[in-house]
Amino acid sequence: MNNASANSFNIQTIAEHHGMIIRDYEALAIALQTTLEIGIDQAKYRHIFDFTDQIWLPVYWNAQTPQRKFVMVDEAQDSGFVIGINPDEI
After folding, report:
1. From start to end of 1-90, where are the E strands?
2. pTM of the entire structure?
3. 74 burial type by CB count under 10 A (0-12 exposed, 13-18 middle, 19+ buried)
4. Nearest to 2 by CA among 58, 85, 66
5. How many whole angstroms separate alpha carbon 35 and alpha carbon 16?
6. φ/ψ (deg, to 5) at 2
7. Where are the chain's structural domains?
8. In a 3-state reduction of DSSP, which class is residue 65?
9. Rounded to whole angstroms, how far apart are CA atoms 48 and 46?
10. Which of 9, 38, 40, 65 is the most buried (most CB within 10 A)?
């Protein structure tokens, strides 16, 4: 989800799929949009990134990344689902 898709309909769809109870979808959508915008600004202007930012911001910005044949990853168990591998099945 990004700030463009953080709307009350999408949030309600996700919440219902996961059996979550949300009292005010519109208020949550506004809070999510604000949070995502703050995160984008912090990354863009203050160069503050966390692990999650490194996953979604390159996609959000349509960043072109260099292709590598091999990548060395520390704590690979934390990235398995990102690359489509269930670490429990390795």
Report:
1. none
2. 0.62
3. exposed
4. 58
5. 22
6. -125, 180
7. 8-89
8. coil
9. 5
10. 40
